Amino acid sequence: MQSDNVIEVKDLKKKFKVYYDKGNSLKEKILFKSRNKYEERWVLNGISFNVKKGEAIGLIGHNGCGKSTTLKLLNRIIYPTSGEIKMKGRVSSLIELGAGFHPDMSGRENIYINASIFGLTKKEIDERIDDIIEFSELEEFMDNPVRTYSSGMYMRLAFAVAINVDADILLIDEILAVGDANFQAKCFNKLREIKGKGVTIVIVSHSLGQVEQICDRTIWIDKGLIREEGQPRKVHPLYMDYMSDTTLNSHQKKEEEEEKTTESEEVQNENVVEENSPRDIGNFDIKITDVQLIDVKTRKPATKFHIEDQMELQVCYMRKNKNIKKCEFGFHIFRSDGLDYYGTNTLIDKVNSVELKDTGKISVVFGAIYLLQGEYKIDIAFHNDLGLTYNHRYNAVEFEIKNYYDEVGIARVTHEWIFNEKEK
Amino acid sequence: MMQVLEELFNYREMIFSLVRRDLRGRYKGSVLGFLWTFINPLLQLAVYTVVFSFIMRAGIEKFYLFLFVALVPWLFFGTCLSGGASCIWAQQDMVKKIYFPREVLPLSFTISQFINMLLSFLVIFVVLVFSGVGINLVALLYLPLIMFIEFILALGTVFIVSALTVYFRDFEYILGIIQMAWMYLTPVLYSMDLIPEEYRSIFKLNPMTPIIIAYRDILYYKQIPHLETLLQASILGIIVLIIGFYIFGKLKRNFAEEL
Q1: Angle at A67 between CA A63 and CA A71, to 5 degrees
Q2: pLDDT per position as a tens digit, A364-386
Q3: ipTM of this complex > 0.85?
C-alpha cells in the first residue's frame, strides 16, 4: 500500500444472486426447488481507484450503477466476489442514522447506544457527549424518551452522533437531506471542518451540487465500471450530457430522428473539444446566444481586470419556446483550478424572475470584483423555478484578475484599520 | 481469531449498551417493571410447589427445590437455544447497514440472558434459606465456575443457531421442539438414577447433563460436585464454543446479503 493512500481498491468485482422468488423456509427450499432459480447479476465489473489522505471523493451514477454497492463494500457490510480493498484507519459511516435507538429511552441514553455501535468506548463518548448535544440543538429534550421526538429531532440527534465519531475515513450515502435548511448548512460546515482535519471522505450522492461543494474528485460509475474520473467540474458536465441524452432518446426519439444528421455531428464535435471551452446542456427552449464581460469604466468588452475594477456580465438570449414567459437566471464563478468561488441566482437573491422577450439581454453588474490574482471562469444558466434547465453553459466566459498588491488568499475581504482609538 | 477478539474488545461499549438496552427495555411500559425479573421465577416456583407437593408426589424430598435449582439454569440455556436463534435476524436493519463485529449480537444476547439467570438465583438463595435447606458455603464456591461453563456452552449454541437461522428461517421454529425434547432428555425433572444403566453413557454426551448435575449437587445436595462432572462439562462446553465460533465466522460474511 502506498504511504499516502488511505483507500486502495483494486479490480473490485461483485455479483449478487437475484432470486426470482426466494423461498426462505425449509419447506419452500425442498418442495419448490424450481422457485430457487436465480440469476447471477454482476453489479461491479472491476473497478480500481485510490484515495489519498484528506481527499474527498464523490461517487455518482444513475440508479443501479453500483455506487452504493461500492460504498457497502468499503464499509465491509458485504464482501467482494473478487478484487481487493485496503483501508487504513477507523472507518465510520453515515449510512444508517439512528441505529439501535430505543424509543423508550432518553435522548442521552440513546446517544450512548448509538455511538457505541460505531465502536466508541465509554470514555470516548463521555468526551464527545457535549459536542453531540450541542450539535443536535436538543439540549432541553435530552432526558425525554426518543419516542416523544419529532422525526426531524430524531434525525438531528442521529446525525449529531454519527458526525461526531472521529473517524479517519467517513463514508456517506445520500444523507444530507436532514432537517431544515439551517441544520443542513450546519452539517455541510461540519463536513468541511472534518475534511479540513484531514479526514478522508467518500460520498455517494445524486446531488451534483453537494458533490461539487465538498469533493475534490468525482468518480462516475456506469454499469459497474468507472466511466470517468476527475475534477467534479470536468466530470459533471459529461455526466449531465449523458443523462439528458438518455432521457432524450427515450422521450423524443421521433423528433430526434429528423435532425439526426446535423445534431449527431454537433454532439461529436462537442465531445472532441477541449474541456475548458464552453459546453452547453439543457433543452434549449431558451438559448444563450452571446456572453461577454464589460469593463464598467470604459464600457468596452474586456477579459483582464484589476482587483478594484468594476465588471459587468452581459448575456444575450433567444427564446425558442414562446410559451415560457418567465425564467430564472444564475451565474457561478470558479477559479481556473476548479475552486468554487461564488454562485447565486435570481431565486436565491429573491429578485423578480426574468421577464422574457424573443431576444433579450441580461446584465449582472459587479461592484469591485475583489478577487485575487488568477484566472477565473463563469458558468451561467437559464432555468425555471423547479430546476428544469433551459440552457446551462459551462465555462461561458473567462477573465483574468491582475493585482499589484501582495494580498494572500482567494478574495479580498473589505476591511479598515483603526489604530489607538481612544476608548469612550 | 485474535483479530476478532481484539475487535470485540474495542466494541465492548456496544456490548454493554445492548445488554443494558435489552434489560432496561424489556419491562418498559409494564407497571411492575423490573420487578418482573423476580416475580416470574417466584410464581413458577409456586406452581411447581402446588403441583408436585399436592398433586403429583414425586417421592423426592422437597421436590419443588430439586426441580427449581435445575430449572433456572435450564431456562437460561433453553432461552438461548430458541430465543437466540433470532438475535441476528431481529437486528437486520443494523446488520445490513453498519459494520461492527457480528459476534457482538450473540454475545450481548447471551450476556443479557445470563444476567437474568443471576437475578433469578437471588430468588433461589432466598428460598433455600427460608425452606430450611440452607447453603453450603464451600460448595457454593463452585457455583461461579459451573455458571461460567454454562455460559460458554450457551454462547457457542447461540453462535450456531443465530447464524443458521439467517439462512433457514424455519430453524427458529424447529428449535422450539428441539428445546422441549432436549429438556426431557436432560435430568431436569428427574434424577440420573431413573435412567437405565445402558443408556447413561449416551446421556453423558449431552453437554447440559453434567451442568445440571453440578448445579443440583451444589445447591440441593449441598456437596462439592465431582471433578469428573466438572471436567466433562468444561470439555463439552469448550468444544461447542469452538464449533460455534467457527461456523459463525464462516457464515457471517454473507449475512447482509442473505437478510
Answers
A1: 140
A2: 988 877 888 888 889 999 988 87
A3: no
